[in-house]
Amino acid sequence: MSSEIGVVGAYSTKYEARSQKETHEMIREVATSVFKTVDKGMEPEEVDLIVVSNYSDSFGNILHTAPLVASYIGNLRATGFRVENACAAGTTAVFLAWKLLSSGSFKNALIVGFEKMSAQGSTARAGEILMRTASPEEYRVGAPFVSLYALIAREYMRRYGATEEDLALVAVKNHENATRNPLAQFQRKITVEDVLKSPYISKPIKLLDSSPLSDGAVAILLSAEPRKYTDTPVYIKGLGLRHDFPAVYQREDMAALKAARLAAQDAYRMSGVSPKDIDVFEIHDAFTISEIVLYEMLGLAARGEGYKLMREGVTSFSGSHPVNPSGGLKAKGHPIGATGV
């Protein structure tokens, strides 16, 4: 049955720096509107599983969200729960829903991801919440996400010869891609010079190397009987979910993202495809160095060669392997619980 599980409906709000909608209003909008995107129609009563993802209840100041979604769609008989898993929260929700549908225990799943990061009112306060994802040791010394990625960037650049200009090329590409996406937070192109002139947040990572704080929500419908609802389902053929040490200093290779490599290998093995078979990639670019390293972890480039793909235009919109045509986290936006959905 697992090979037949597919996406039959999807709906997203526009990602914004500061949405005028309350958190519960965003959740209601996506949870109810997604049914209107199903080609052959699906009634809310046909959903028997609800999975909600978000990074932290501190963003949006709301808990107990699965029953809330159930009430919004008028289906209190559905089984529901919420998951958090840092920036992988949304993907974890999809992973768990897929597993449960594969088991035969459920037929149709509604997955809702959301975050209202502007609810904290300041970048400093939001940063403190984001630091809770770090290991206890890193949190104790006040190391924010950007500084941890800066450690990765510095080691990668020292070892392989990549430059700050190479990082800037990722930001330029993804901002240009976002201009084609009406739901993206940023709708303007930038230049390499713009990135290089932006202030350092944690050297070598600058402001324009970094994804923004974002508000947004998204919902998808997964079905174990996708052809019942659409003639063009998006089948999920392969999945992977892996972990590494939370602390960067504990990892065997500071210039790698091992968990992503292992998860990709699991997904490739399950689906029977290789990187060269894939036409489009959407990957995690919370900071520009992440996208470059992930080229290598996903098998698009050999170790130490990822930054060269940017120089050669391989991952551009018109390249042989387009990456983040949506604009990515960098320009589409990064409301964390919604991102992986």
UniProtKB/TrEMBL annotation:
Entry keyword Signal: no
Keywords: Isoprene biosynthesis
GO molecular function, one term: acyltransferase activity, transferring groups other than amino-acyl groups
Pfam families, per the entry: Thiolase_C_1 (PF22691), Thiolase_N (PF00108)
CDD domains associated with the record: SCP-x_thiolase (cd00829)
Native source species: Thermofilum pendens
Protein name: Thiolase family protein
Region (Disordered): 320-341
InterPro entries: Thiolase-like, Thiolase_C_2, Thiolase_N
Start and end residues of each Thiolase N-terminal domain: 7-224
Ranges of residues in domain Thiolase C-terminal: 243-339
Biological process per Gene Ontology, one example term: isoprenoid biosynthetic process
